[in-house]
Write a structure and sequence with these properties.
Blueprint lengths: L1 E5 L6 H14 L3 E6 L5 E2 L5 E2 L3 E2 L7 E4 L5 H4 L3 H13 L2 E4 L3 H7 L7 E2 L6 H7 L4 E2 L5 E4 L2 E4 L4 H14 L1 H11 L24 H12 L7 H8 L3 H12 L3 H19 L4 H7 L5 H11 L4 H8 L7
Parallel strand pairs: 1-2, 1-6, 2-5, 6-7, 7-11, 8-9
Antiparallel strand pairs: 3-4, 10-11
Keywords: Transcription, Transcription regulation
InterPro entries: Class_I_gatase-like, DJ-1/PfpI, Homeodomain-like_sf, HTH_AraC, INH-QAR
Pfam families: DJ-1_PfpI, HTH_18
Length: 313
């Protein structure tokens, strides 16, 4: 099976090398790096890669388009977009890593499909390509025959899933052990981003309320209490808040409390019941449910994964 990686000036090196190592370790694959010309292509970090070939018309089993800052320019390169479109038609499957999804979308390959990209670029992708159904949380999305992954190291997750699909779970587990990574990591992108859903409100009063909420996590933050602070009826407040912030008041309060708890889990050794009280959850059980709902991992799992070495002493 031939895996063809498309690179462009300003690509992110890990978007290429991570998945490439997965397929190499799995065995049974032929990998190649392709670019517009067979001349060195410099990544965003300065690492230059010499492609195996320039654009070609040969059969391709899997095309993977890598991302990086350079996609902002590559998306306007008509020759690159045309090659992606033509190659996708003769490939068994097509994938993207990180912002490589923008190039797939520009080629029309994501129209009407569910897709993801780096959490920080999901809103922009949705705005530029409204026909694409953007899901900001998954590590990768499979909408056959198109696969898209989240940012950077998520390309490894994508490649492992492809290996599992081709060669079975045992083969994917063997590669994951060699790379010392999860075959399927728990949780989604929300565990790495601050607040995926919330947006900065236009109304100064709502911005002030957001600041007040962050400073008073143990206060009564019900819709009724927050509405009273703004002088609005609960019904009107809930509607205005959702229109301005993009989420309901309850969802926003929960996300701020979870974010505060995440910081304490990362930087302190305080017990879970103490963190739950300080962040307004009341009980560890309530905090547990909120973490599972918003971050898809438990507070304990989150602490084990992200706690700093200083905090663990």
């Amino acid at each position: 099976m031939r895996i063809t990686f498309l690179v462009h000036p300003g690509f992110q090196s890990l978007d290429l090398t991570g998945p490439l190592e997965v397929f190499d370790l799995a065995g049974g694959y032929t990998t190649e790096v392709v670019a517009a010309e067979r001349t060195p292509v410099e990544s965003s970090s300065g690492l230059a890669v010499l492609p195996h070939r320039a654009f070609h018309d040969d059969p391709v089993d899997t095309l993977i388009v890598v991302g990086g800052p350079g996609t902002a320019e590559a998306i306007h390169d008509e020759r690159t977009i045309a090659w992606i479109s033509a190659t996708a038609r003769r490939a068994r499957r097509v994938g993207s890593v990180c912002s490589g999804a923008f190039l797939l979308a520009r080629a029309g390959l994501l129209d009407g499909r569910r897709a993801t990209t780096h959490w920080s670029a999901c809103r922009l992708l949705a705005e530029r390509f409204p026909s694409v159904e953007i899901d900001p949380d998954p590590i990768f999305v499979r909408d056959d025959p198109v696969w898209t992954s989240a940012g950077v190291t998520a390309g490894i997750d994508l490649a492992l899933a492809m290996v599992e699909d081709d060669c079975g779970a045992a083969a994917a587990r063997a590669v994951a052990r060699q790379l010392v990574v999860f075959v399927q990591r728990p949780g989604g992108q929300a565990q790495f981003s601050a607040q995926l859903a919330a947006q900065r409100p236009d109304r100064p009063g709502m911005r002030e309320l957001q600041r007040w909420i962050a400073d008073h996590l143990t206060a009564d933050l019900s819709v009724e209490a927050l509405a009273a602070r703004t002088g609005l009826s609960p019904r009107h407040f809930a509607r205005v808040f959702r229109d301005d912030v993009g989420v309901t008041p309850g969802s926003y309060v929960e996300s701020v409390r979870v974010e505060a708890a995440r910081r304490l889990l990362e930087t302190t050794a305080r017990p879970l019941d103490v963190i739950a009280r300080e962040c307004g959850f009341g009980t560890p059980e309530t905090m547990h449910r909120s973490f599972k709902r918003t971050v898809s991992v438990t507070p304990g799992d989150y602490r084990r994964r992200f706690r700093s070495s200083v905090a663990s002493r």
